[in-house]
Amino acid sequence: MLTIDPGDVVSAETHDAMEGRIRTESDLPSDVLNFPFLNPQNGPIFVRGAEKGDCLAVHIKSIVPRGPQPVGTTCLMREFGGLVGTGDTALLNAPLPERVKKVEVDPITGVRWSDRITLPYQPFIGTIGTSPEIEAISSLHPDYYGGNMDLPDVAPGSVIYLPVHAPGALLYLGDCHAAQGDGELCGFAIEHPTVTTVQVDLIKDWSFRWPRLENERVIMTIGSGRPMEDAARIAYRELVRWMAADYGFEELDAYMLLTQAGRLRVGNMVDPKYSLGASIDKSMLLAQAAG
Amino acid sequence: MLTIDPGDVVSAETHDAMEGRIRTESDLPSDVLNFPFLNPQNGPIFVRGAEKGDCLAVHIKSIVPRGPQPVGTTCLMREFGGLVGTGDTALLNAPLPERVKKVEVDPITGVRWSDRITLPYQPFIGTIGTSPEIEAISSLHPDYYGGNMDLPDVAPGSVIYLPVHAPGALLYLGDCHAAQGDGELCGFAIEHPTVTTVQVDLIKDWSFRWPRLENERVIMTIGSGRPMEDAARIAYRELVRWMAADYGFEELDAYMLLTQAGRLRVGNMVDPKYSLGASIDKSMLLAQAAG
Amino acid sequence: MLTIDPGDVVSAETHDAMEGRIRTESDLPSDVLNFPFLNPQNGPIFVRGAEKGDCLAVHIKSIVPRGPQPVGTTCLMREFGGLVGTGDTALLNAPLPERVKKVEVDPITGVRWSDRITLPYQPFIGTIGTSPEIEAISSLHPDYYGGNMDLPDVAPGSVIYLPVHAPGALLYLGDCHAAQGDGELCGFAIEHPTVTTVQVDLIKDWSFRWPRLENERVIMTIGSGRPMEDAARIAYRELVRWMAADYGFEELDAYMLLTQAGRLRVGNMVDPKYSLGASIDKSMLLAQAAG
Amino acid sequence: MLTIDPGDVVSAETHDAMEGRIRTESDLPSDVLNFPFLNPQNGPIFVRGAEKGDCLAVHIKSIVPRGPQPVGTTCLMREFGGLVGTGDTALLNAPLPERVKKVEVDPITGVRWSDRITLPYQPFIGTIGTSPEIEAISSLHPDYYGGNMDLPDVAPGSVIYLPVHAPGALLYLGDCHAAQGDGELCGFAIEHPTVTTVQVDLIKDWSFRWPRLENERVIMTIGSGRPMEDAARIAYRELVRWMAADYGFEELDAYMLLTQAGRLRVGNMVDPKYSLGASIDKSMLLAQAAG
Q1: How far is A229 from chain C (nearest CA, A)?
Q2: What is the pLDDT of residues D173-207, one digit of tens each?
Q3: What is the least distance, in Å, from the CA of B92 to any CA of chain D?
Q4: ipTM exceeding 0.85?
Q5: What does pTM read for this prediction?
Q6: Within this chain, do residues B146 and B265 fall inside the same structural domain, yes or no?
Q7: Which chain A residue has the Cα nearest residue C87?
Q8: Do residues A171 and A273 share a domain?
């Protein structure tokens, strides 16, 4: 276990979510992947001084691909994904065929999806969280402690705020994506191994229930739940509370303003809980504060 | 009933969703609103030549406010909204207090939310649809025929494609919003009366299950359902099908590409069904076609 | 339209839900069924004196099969059912094969499922409702007005209470089942044509939101919604309210007692809304009243 | 950690779910309960020879109350329960008042709810499970490993089959209820401390995904998930598979038969996942086998 001081910068050599086991497009996911041994994480990282009731502020500095090309992988796995029957939405239909796609990922030229289509390189951290107070959880789950949220806003230039539940916080991260659409529809974004660099600050005595995020443009709260409307409710309620606690809004005013100006981002619609981010432009918070 | 020819331009004087009954901030919604007599619509409009199996292409030309200021209204209504118990999510908690907010709406200077905060004027049509084949439905419902979707993309510059189920299509529209956040959280966007102008084209023999939309930047499919993940599934499956039928993608390729590049917009999370739009940038469709 | 007086007895010759179009086990549902022209109903029946704010008390007297054997039909239809992807839970998996099963139904000897298995004849009315105030709805929907609830408790010996929304109530019924498990899993119970006899009483000035039912043993409230937990919430909240209004319970006491003694019955998990009945034994209501 | 051999009988002195901290009706749950330190369990119990791929058959022999009267407790806790906003269904409504009810529980005379109402003593094990393969989970969760299912069928006379994921199985149990309605509506059944006696058998090389149960009358499969329809789907799919694997049914025949004869029991509609049991009468399985 790595131990750090608040303010330290950490560079993590992350694996892809399949731990590199899918090497070619002819590998079958069902042959090489071994549930629940998926989504390997870097950590835990013990942050000195972190205690229950505090909050980590993780500044995401950079994400760069590492390893031999084609470094990006996506695939169809049986009974996993947003448009198929799954272990939860348990059906009798036959599964889709398995399929693997390997793609070159370059920070400058982008993700080479095909001869015709290239996607911009927009990397983010798929999984980042702190330890729950009394559980040892799978890295596949997103929840109040963060985890496998697969939310593209957790990207360089953002700071994510994670509540501390256990001594030292026990931060973990991994599962970086080179590109992803809203919902991570088939369950596998462009998964790729990276060097991910973060700076970890500690904020004493700031506590809340669900992860929060901030970048130059917005503040965002992240809810995870099923059905999807519950994730949306969690995210928006947390945002109402944040606006009320720190930005001078009365709760029902915040509720009504978000009706006109709130934004929702669907991170994943495939994981054990769906994750959504609710946000509002900082310009409105500044206007309110300036009043 | 207005009868038009394909290609005709129609200007509709729409009411706000409360039919103008909320005149001041001291009106109580429970006093002046009378369910189910809400959300008045303009129509039906009979389009000559429209038959089952065809599709209307409704080009949204312009939306401008009409009537005396303050022309915009939002409010909290009992047991309605995304962060309260409702008639469907039926709970024992006491309802929130009722509240009304009237705001000035100007196409140039925007929506004057408060002394401190002004929102841009971004009008769209909250409710637009065609008749089902054998039902006469409430204007409060969104479904396969369109209806009360409350999706901000249904805005000037877009064309919405609505399948025809009954002779003449029987188009209706209303419920225009001056501004709205994702999800229309409390249930009432900035409701306002308008003059809304659309051009109605008819496309023979083009049929599909759920509404579609196109603007300069994207193609979008719109799904409505509960729980919210079902609305997302509908929207994304329809988009897969559209990409396969008209843009040269194999179905599973479209599924995998949307995983990396699809976008979801939450229209409403308050109506009888939730409405989500799934979209993809036309640049990718053009690249695919050019290959 | 049949017009009756309160207290009249009506015998209806109901069709099966497929209107008798599936005649042999080699008929393909996709060939002979034509959505939305499904689930034919008997009615509307105009009840003299019935007005908004009143309630019909429909006493179910008897249900007997009619027509040539094998009179019972069940089948697998594409994209319909509880364990398959559907038009709402929209997936990319291939549909199940279609399949039809015709069975003999005898009120005494039961439903002859196979050479080995015979099910008891436990008939009930799958669809029964009154008109909404301003809509003309499909008979496939269950909602606050009753409709396609597919709840086995709507059986001979029960009285179902249906709120009146329109002059004359406009009662309809049909879709009788000879046997059905909880949830009507594949979407088709043992559908069969019947002679169904009911007595229709009118209760003036008794109004509530959702259908209620009573038999010798229990009182029951019926909620329809999606996701399924919303149907359960509706049903239980209505039961709390009924116990409070008519049986001397304080609301929170009723809530706590139902925690220990309430029963839930899943009617359907396949229709546009799922329908659940929440009930409590009358013995407890009598004990409470006797106190 | 207790280590036993297959076939051993174990008697556990269980606590109530609040670990006995609610002593009088004037104790406030929010004062004395300390989330996540709730729902204390007995165990883990290491079963010699149990390995991944095996199954425990836990025969429930008896449950008797222990401790001073009134030994039964139920209560209303903030943001927990089936008819209130919760941490997942996150709303802005004010919570219900807290309330505690203590009741006498006697195996013969029953549960003395009030001067007027007495409920039969129908005890069962609310929480019983085995260890996941790589997680240490909270006892509040129900999932594929069993856990906090709150299903009244887990009662004396039943055997519950729990798949083994980790060496020794690591069985745990607790949270016994003296009476409970379907859904455990307010979140707290009649919680009570007990002496619970079980016999633990080991079945080698019998593995499946979700817990199963058997008693004199039925076989049952138990699914846990959100939304509630997913729990129902899991339970019914597992039952289809069990009938196909062990009772001579073709899968689609089992699907169609369960449509006519399957039963659903809602265990809880309040825990992190809802738990439902799907069952079929053994008489039909015997008839099928006798054919």
Answers
A1: 10
A2: 999 999 999 999 999 999 999 999 999 999 999 99
A3: 6
A4: yes
A5: 0.98
A6: no
A7: A83
A8: no
